[in-house]
Write a structure and sequence with these properties.
Number of domains of chain A: 2
Mean pLDDT of chain A: 94
CATH superfamily of the largest domain in chain A: Carbon-nitrogen hydrolase
Radius of gyration of chain A: 26 Å
Largest sheet of chain A: 7 strands, mixed
Low-confidence stretches of chain A: none
CATH topology of the largest domain in chain A: Nitrilase/N-carbamoyl-D-aminoacid amidohydrolase
CATH architecture of the largest domain in chain A: 4-Layer Sandwich
Structural class of chain A: alpha/beta
Helix content of chain A: 25-40%
Strand order of the largest sheet of chain A: 13-12-9-8-7-6-15
Number of strands of chain A: 19
Strand content of chain A: 15-25%
Oligomer: homodimer
Largest interface: A-B, 75 and 77 residues
Number of helices of chain A: 17
Chain lengths: ~575, ~575
């Protein structure tokens, strides 16, 4: 038995910002070194950010990344932290294409680099055709440390088992597993499974932050050889945590040469160790479904805005629940001063809509203006003699164009406030309420929007603050207000029923037969399935938005637009 | 040596239309049987259409597909063609997920079905975890016929070699390889390579038709064991062709059992054979670059419209080259009566724009109207005091909304006429000229648009018809006409230079260093690369359009929107 002081650094890198990400890694290493860490673990692809999509296969980028890694190793030594072993995930490339890699930096050098043994995991179609050739083992203060990317760790047990059978005492895994609603990040069960399979200690570092539609929620952790958690970092916050970890000495089985990967050993001089005692930090707490979803939505919105250089956001305040929840999200993500609301009443807007929009702006303390769209709508309606759906749509579109024009003049990021329910059944107007650079509620069903609104107001009450969302916006029946006395339930089932059906069909992958057997009305099922199928083209043109479910539109669910199949069983 | 009469049926299936596709297969079989075919080969996934995207992993769909296949086998026998062996590609599923399969139908039964041996090829991320377990060999009139999907054929030589080593005399491959500009469909070199590797005759059937952005161009073919083409079907046309094929008897090597796939033999009773002599049909001719690109654009547009139930299209006639070429494409794809052009002059429109739009409508003989957008634009401009880019954009957007309103009233498919050059550098207005359900020129650079225009007019002259495109639309300098005396070259390099740079960067995957070394001005390169990088968000919301290059936006090239990396080497 021996002790190793292990640092887990869950940071928020930005895709492509090699210099900025390197600076974050230097700060994280400094913080861990100050806490006496012998080794610090960083997330997967932390130097480049991720996911990289086709940027991964751009050779000049991989080349820049490789050069930056070598410079980083030198800089860490220049910072006086050369003796601290740094393990991180990075991008490399060889003749087969981009490689997802883990690297070890020590005393100014990249002492080891290992390519994924399941090369089709990280970059999808661009996968190289052969697995990594070696497994790199770092001996530090008598402990044999193996490295594996979270991707390799997740793809199968075999590489992990090979490491354990080669005498490794500790596995450190740079990971990048995005948020999905649930008890913990999926890193937790993964580490637990591999630890119990191999009987050795495994640590995983996961990033924090938003990248286009994806959110990473941290929750880095280390588990012992029984799978018991020794520490878990909080979710949604950058954090460098260091803990003394007891490492059992692995009984090395001399395994026969089966033609598997070559094991390469590196003996590192860890130098003198910290004599300061260190208290294991307190693990992050579990979060309620509403708390974690809210945090993910705030982080996704903040990082999309911030990382793309937007200082402020703009969208229509309709008086309804979606724009109210979007407003509260912006206030939490960027501050009330970064929020510009526009009320755009038309002839079908009820008085309470304008009042509720005003109350929302007052409660939040954001910028607010009112623009009447009646004249422009009337101009289109009269000239083209618009009726029915065309008249409904033109109202939404005149509003959308007005928002885009203000954005052009003032530089705000326009947000599209529609929710997942509306997107699923096509209950939104292309180029109308669908305009925007980002859609915060794209992956949140309508009934979840209501739950989040109530939860956020309760939180405010608990903290003695003004609840941001007007009560009437939560309690009144939903309406698009595009024709007289319109209610969403004129065209749609009650939202409780609708979301229950959509959740099972879209996220739990039930088929029509299962829906009908479970008691949903056959006619309703067929109508909703037809609406989902018929509106794929709208979803293809919808802006990106934060993913919080296992199955988000576009990223996880893309059906053909041209599709003659109707489910009938 | 023996003779087999082989039919190649290149058909145009529709994704999801199991009944319609089965009807096509019955018609194709009847036609081949009438020509005395012993065996007829159909394309990959012909019963379901393709690509299926996430429809592939919908179990109820795979189940429907499987049932339809069994019914089809019975129907073929009922049609009196049970003795004709039918080989086709279809969708199946097992406990690991969807399976890309080839099946053999004979005498009312599905006599053999074989799953892909490279299961990650057809459905990307949804790939099953294990390869197909068997290779099915059909003995008909003394010939041993092996089957392989085009996907399996393309992934590696091994399965093909295994078949050859097992005594197979002929391989028939249901394929589905989309069009890319080039001398022939990529099926040609693939068949040639596998035939020369194995020394046996190989036939491949490829579909024809558009599916969302993809176009299949047929060009089905059969090659002998030296790789010499025996017959190639034309491109872009449905065709059933039958030819007498001389099959060499393969020398069977009794290969040792190496734990490879199991070979299963099926002895089929082909019944009495046709005594009518049959002349090998004439092979399809090579097409010029313009001719094949034009055919692909026509087919892609026609099938998107037709398969999605649109009878007519609508877009703005600006007097410029893009809308003129789009108009000519619609006329060729759907007829002039299916085309509705709208001239929407504003204060910055030059007189020749309106004249050229009118001349276009006259030349084509399509529906045409003029709507002045000045009042509505002025309303926005005055109310919001719009200047600069905001004033430019609102003109494009007021036009876009007008088109959408007319479409809502009259049911036309709105087309977005922008080209690949504009899309690459973001020279189009989101929700303005970018509105539409389909973008015919999305993958065609501006200089190619001009070339296509000249080619199409020349074709008309050659045929003694009225050239569809006004000469002035081809020859005048390009301008968006959104401010006084604007020309595209105010903000962009000359198109010849720009397209040369874009083609190398986007399609040939040159990096910045290669561009600079080859002589492009450094400042221009940096400016254009920055424009490409900064407009990814616009491309994400752009409608689908016909793919004609190796690297089409969205389908083949997706970069992160949030991306801090600038190429500097």
């Amino acid at each position: 038995m021996t002790q190793l002081r292990v640092g887990l650094a869950q940071l928020n890198p930005t895709v492509g910002d090699l210099a900025g990400n390197a600076a974050l890694i230097r700060e994280g290493t400094a913080e861990a070194a100050q806490q006496g860490a012998d080794v610090v673990l960083f997330p997967e692809l932390v130097l480049t950010g991720c996911p990289l999509e086709d940027l991964a296969s751009h050779p000049a980028f991989a080349q820049d990344s490789r050069e930056r890694l070598a410079a980083l190793a030198r800089e860490l030594a220049d910072d006086g932290h050369g003796a601290t072993l740094v393990i991180l995930g990075c991008l490399d490339h060889d003749e087969t294409g981009p490689r997802n890699a883990v690297a070890a930096l020590h005393r100014g050098m990249v002492v080891a680099e290992q390519f994924d043994h399941h090369p089709d995991g990280a970059f999808g179609e661009h996968h190289p055709t052969h697995p990594g050739q070696s497994l790199e083992v770092l001996q530090l203060h008598g402990v044999n440390i193996g490295m594996l990317s979270g991707t390799d760790l997740g793809m199968s047990a075999d590489t992990c088992t090979t490491l354990a059978n080669s005498g490794v005492d500790l596995i450190l895994a740079p990971a990048a597993i995005p948020f999905e609603r649930g008890a913990a990040n999926r890193l937790a069960p993964l580490l637990q499974q591999r630890a119990t399979e191999t009987g050795i200690v495994i640590g995983g570092a996961n990033p924090v932050g938003g990248q286009d539609g994806l959110v990473f929620d941290g929750n880095s952790r280390i588990v012992d050889g029984h799978g018991t958690g020794l520490y878990q970092a909080p979710r949604f916050e950058s954090r460098v945590a260091t803990m003394d970890t007891t490492i059992g000495t692995n009984v090395v089985e001399t395994s026969p040469d089966t033609g598997g990967p070559r094991i390469r050993h590196h003996h590192l001089d860890g130098g003198s160790r910290s004599q300061h005692p260190h208290t294991t930090p307190v693990s992050g707490e579990a979060l309620s479904d509403e708390a974690q979803t809210w945090s993910a939505l705030v982080l996704g919105l903040r990082d999309y805005s911030r990382k793309n250089g937007f200082q402020s956001t703009l969208f229509g305040f309709s008086g309804g629940i979606d724009s109210a929840v979007c407003a509260a999200l912006v206030a939490d993500a960027l501050g009330a001063d970064a929020l510009h609301g526009v009320s755009m009443p038309s002839r079908y807007s009820s008085r309470h809509s304008t009042e509720d929009a005003e109350e929302l702006a007052e409660r939040i303390g954001c910028h607010f203006r009112s623009e009447n769209v009646e004249d422009i709508v009337a101009d289109y309606v009269t000239r083209l003699q618009l009726t029915g759906l065309a008249e409904e749509n033109i109202q939404a579109r005149v509003r959308g164009m007005l928002l885009m024009a203000i954005s052009n003049m003032e530089g705000h990021l326009v947000l599209a406030p529609a929710n997942k329910t509306e997107l699923a059944v096509g209950y939104s107007t292309l180029y109308g309420d669908a305009v925007g650079g980002f859609a915060p509620l794209k992956d949140v069903f309508k009934t979840q929007v209501w739950r989040l609104a109530r939860w956020r107001n309760d939180e405010a009450n608990r903290r003695g603050e003004t609840p941001p969302i007007p009560e009437r916006s939560i309690n009144k029946p939903a309406s698009a207000e595009l024709r007289p006395d319109q209610a969403d339930t004129d065209s749609l089932p009650e939202y409780t029923l609708l979301d229950s059906l959509l959740g099972r069909y879209l996220e739990d992958e039930w088929d029509r037969a299962a829906l009908v057997t479970s008691g949903f009305d056959t006619e309703t099922v067929d109508r909703i399935l037809r609406m989902i199928k018929g509106t794929e083209y709208k979803r293809r043109q919808y802006p990106p938005g934060t993913r919080v479910s296992r199955r988000a539109f576009d990223r996880d669910r893309r059906f053909p637009i041209t599709n003659a199949w109707h489910e009938t069983h």
